[in-house]
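During the second year of the project, the team shifted from modelling isolated chains to modelling whole assemblies. The rationale, set out in the original proposal, was that interfaces cannot be judged from single-chain predictions alone. As a representative example for this report, we include one of the complexes processed in the last quarter. Its constituent sequences, exactly as entered into the pipeline, are reproduced here:
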Amino acid sequence: MKYVISVKEQSIDAKIDTRFGRAQLFALYDSKSGECSWHPNTQNFQAAQGAGIQTAQNVVNLGAEAVISGHCGPKAYSVLRAAGVLIYAVEGNPTIKEAVQMIESGKIKAMEGADVEGHWV
Amino acid sequence: MKDTGSDSLKVVICSGKGGTGKTTLALSLAWTLGQAEEFSLPVRLLDCDVEEPNCHLFLRCNYENPTPVLAEKPVFDMQRCDGCGICASKCRYNAIAVVKGTPLVFNDLCHSCGVCGVVCPRGAITLKNTAIGEMLVDDSHRPFSFMFGRLNVGESQSPMVIGEMLKHTLTDGLNIIDGPPGTACNTVKAVAAADKVILVTEPTPFGANDLGLALDLCAQLHKPCGVIINRSDDNDQLIEDLAARYHVPVIGKIPFKREYARACSDGLILTQEFPELSAGVISSFSHLLSDSAIPVVRAEKVVVQGECRTQAASEISQKHDDDQELTILSGKGGTGKTSVAGAFISLAGSLVAADCDVDAANLRLLMNDRVLYSERACLGSEAVIDQNKCIKCGKCYEGCRFDAIDFDSQSNRYTVNDLNCEGCGLCLEVCPVKAIGEKRAETGSLMLSESARGRLVHAKLSAAAENSGKLVTMVRNLAFATLAEQNKEWLLVDGPPGTACPAIASVTGSDRVVLVTEPTIAAVHDLERIIKLVRHFGLKPEIIINKVDINPTYARKIKDLADTAGYKVLGEIPFDETVKEAIKAGVPIVDFNDGPASQALKNIWTKVKETRT
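Output from the structure prediction step:
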């Protein structure tokens, strides 16, 4: 499975950044091959509005099959779901590998809706 | 824009920030002038504070079927769309995403600029009217007719709703327009239509600070104004001096009395309840007609001391896991948010503060600070027309949805009106000879200050600037960096009023939110809106009720509201006249005396500390 993960620094031991749209860096991690690449999110980090939407679009273009972050708002959620990407919201501060392990062992289920209440909808 | 009818007059009532008595004055003027014999003209009151309309609460009007205010939003013809994604890449507002060949539109982010329709190579996008707000004219109301307008919660196009409302001004009468607070694009829209502007303020350093911003805006728009001092206590030198410096007259004063505050909290019209105030209101208005003047702007130098960092603040962000970020918000302005923030800063002893009310930052007035570092914040862009390349075809003029291209028939030149330009980029796309480029628009400045009470990050938004939400994010990022550098644990954020993008930018990712409210009809109304916002971010707001004894009925309502939803009431602050003295002295109340308000705040702070998350 190809995961895109919002992280705080460029390291395989990096902890997850709980922000999605305004995270500064994403890791693209392939749990089959163990390969990991890094993708900065500078442009969206600085966006005046709609950061989640554009970030989600970029994440889809990276080839993500699943996203791991802390929170996912309704707009980013609808973009990711439209592309069939699974979304996992993790709590605490796990590292990339810890989070992937929790997901693959079934401890965390994919989100079935934005985890924060509808943005005015 | 301007009505040429000789009997028509548009008076816009503004204040640099909310809570100074704008609505109170607008209602009193409409009530009194609507029946005054010396003014035989019909009067209409327009509530153009469309993000937080309150006038209807005072008029006890509840409108069932207002007319929708429409804005054009893109609709895709999926037979034609091939999923190329050009529309998404050209949209400056990030309102379109194209994933796996399918376009998704987010109407609440769309500014109806029309770029997507212009750039689509397959003609797959048409623009269709969608409701963004509502409005209604109530002609049956007496002694003045009333116009109500409201932006739908979550929409961003308040200038568009205001623009629609302004088409319904009386052409043969007096229009009193209750404007939005602040000096951002919505205020510009209202003030631009004014014949005269009344600026309402209060005699405190906060009031003076915000009045200065409003005067700067009126100077920029060449609008004659007069100042009214609300809650006057015969010690108004600060405001009088400021008005004199701008060569603008003080046209009236409303004295400070507890029974006036009480009447307003109950949603009563001041001059209706207290007819003795009518004469003053009439004389202020005559004074406005005869003596109002366009403000003369003073030259101001920003002195920057200390070393200047070269690193952009936006690049040095990142909050640490053990940092505790406490955000103070209020929904409505003037409820005492900054006074609470000032008290917390003093009591904490060691923290970093961030003033995210970038429209009218005034936390620094309580901190006696020294600016260490300042940078210009260029966040948006504006179009510029290269006159040497322009072939005068007028396509930009026809295409612009924001009236931002001016045509001067004498010189036969098309130019960009910077105040109206939203930077959508449509003109760049439609210009056949690529004569239009872009310049970076200065949105404001970002500053780091030092004071005896700790470091403060604050900003100043340029008048009519867009992107205030982004500037808020920059303030917070610089604050996180300062927190790490200073090795402090607490970050205290004084948030902006309202529920629009700057408020959203202040709450995102915060650890806890404290809402400061007061028991008034308007504040309770706005509290419900801000709670929606806070809950959206998965946070449970904690509530402080300021001036709790002013109106027991509404105090009870706030407590019931909190109980039902399971929100904690952190504390109640009694009405205390010395708070105003402390503000005048520029000192947090907890350092000023040990009176009832001071003690209440100390108890509240103890609770905040004990319940650190």
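The radius of gyration of chain B is 24 Å. Residues 1-5, 300-317 of chain B have pLDDT under 50 and may be disordered.
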